[in-house]
Amino acid sequence: MTSLPLAPLPSSVTPAKGVTFALTHTVSVTGDPDAAGVLHRLILTRTGLHLTASPGSAEPGRAVIDVTVDGDGPPESYRLTVADNRVTVRGADAAGLFYGVQTLSQLITGSPEGWVIPGVDIDDAPRFAYRGVMLDVARHFHDVATVTAYLERAASLKFNVLHLHLSDDQGWRLALTRRPELTARAAASAVGGGAGGFFTSDDYRAIIAHAAANHMTVVPEFDMPGHTHAVGLAYPEVAALPALDGWDAAGGPTPVAGETYTGMGVGFSSLRIGAPETDAFVDDILTELAELTPGPYLHFGGDEAHGTPAADFAAFVARTSRVIADLGKTPIAWHEAGVAADLAPGTIGQYWGLVSPTDGADERARAFVAGGGRVILSPADAVYLDMKPAADSPLGLTWANGPTSLERAYSWEPCEIVPGISEDDILGVEAPLWTETVRDLDDIDALAFPRVAAAAEAAWSVPAGTAAGRTWESFRKRVGGLGPLWTTLGIRFPASPEVSWTL
């Protein structure tokens, strides 16, 4: 199998020996204007070359790159062929063509003769329909520019979902006309007492539009009934008092009702389950979120609600799932919500337990499948990008059996995580990045890369071990070859010692 610098690994890669396409300023780009525009920008960034745009056919004899949607193949699939004087990229749809262009950008290589693309035939399609990254903008707020930069990085690795964690104990990050006090009173702080912030509705729409241009769907999350201390700053009538028996303080301050929380502890906050004020609050925020969000999913959290009595928790998540379903959206919840017997049919469960499940997490995940839904896999000790990559990393945490090396991030198989769940039961894979220690884009890059490429391969490529190149040794070599591309794209990735980087 190939040693070409490709990640995630395509379904089929056949090198063409002795074939090289010379990439010079005389090359003409033809075909789909959107895909051609993406390719122009990538080539300019990578090489400094301004290629010639040809809305129709290229001049006879001229080297050409043709990018076209032909409707052939499964959704998001593409075919790429590199010959001596012609490169063709054919997508089953616009998303597939976009991914083919991203693959082509990975193949561009500097040589003594100039920029070249090695001869190859690639036939590629995704394994899972849902391939996500999550960015927590609640523990530390990240502005539109940072969010869009990260989603562009993710899209280049064929992720198609951006999950935004928009609320937590430390702050509320989306302005809502129905509940204006949420951002007026509960958005000004972050972990450590840093500056907070929030998205206006126009900001949120801008993120959605940028995501769509990169073939990504935005999945927003308001986390409930736990992780809601900030809600009490704005609407104290819907918030329960902090429950301090059994909460995880994480070495931080003790939460006080009505005061901003700046620690990293979890499990102490809850809403007042069953109160009419709470039901009205939930209905308001989810209705407006549904109106703002064109995508099919709304995530309502449901994790680490240690301050909520079990019966109240089950009643709350069941009702909330039905509210979302009635709004015409598909509910998603963290796997703990699987304890509720009457979730809305088709509710999706997001498993964030360990690669080897503990404390009944697997049972709760299976409950979503029994209810007609499917499961998103986010095993914390493999794809939680906020775990330290090494013990001496200045960023990140270690609670999920950390540190999490690149090899460990790669060496897991989605179908082997939750016993009793088949591949058909898995909607996809998501790599979350929680931001307790993450303050800016450089921090995001330092924790996400190169491990986010391992998550991309789990989400896109064939199962581990079923193809010659779907191995750790192949992956570390392929990722090493992406160093020059990532550098020119402005990604400040750490030079992991697990990889032999191409300079």
Short précis:
With 503 residues, the chain is α/β, with parallel strands linked by helices. It has helices at residues 33-47, 94-107, 144-156, 181-185, 201-213, 229-234, 276-292, 310-326, 361-370, 380-383, 406-410, 441-448, 451-460, 472-480, 483-488, and strands at residues 12-22, 28-31, 52-53, 64-69, 78-82, 86-91, 109-111, 114-124, 130-136, 161-165, 167-168, 171-172, 217-224, 297-301, 330-334, 348-351, 375-377, 426-433.
Tell me what the structure shows.
The chain has 503 residues and is of the alpha/beta class. Helices cover 30% and strands 19% of the residues. It has helices at residues 33-47, 94-107, 144-156, 181-185, 201-213, 229-234, 276-292, 310-326, 361-370, 380-383, 406-410, 441-448, 451-460, 472-480, 483-488, and strands at residues 12-22, 28-31, 52-53, 64-69, 78-82, 86-91, 109-111, 114-124, 130-136, 161-165, 167-168, 171-172, 217-224, 297-301, 330-334, 348-351, 375-377, 426-433. Strands 1, 2, 3, 4, 5, 6, 7 and 8 form an 8-stranded mixed β-sheet that branches. An 8-stranded parallel barrel has the order 9-10-13-14-15-16-17-18, surrounded by 7 helices. It is elongated. The mean pLDDT is 96.
Work out the radius of gyration: 23 Å
* Count of runs of 4 or more consecutive helical residues: 15
Query: What is the name of the CATH topology of the largest domain?
Result: TIM Barrel
Number of beta strands: 18
* CATH C-level label of the largest domain: Alpha Beta
CATH superfamily placement of the largest domain = Glycosidases
Distance between the termini: 23 Å
Q: What is the name of the CATH architecture of the largest domain?
A: Alpha-Beta Barrel
Portion in helices: 25-40%
Quaternary state of the chains: single chain
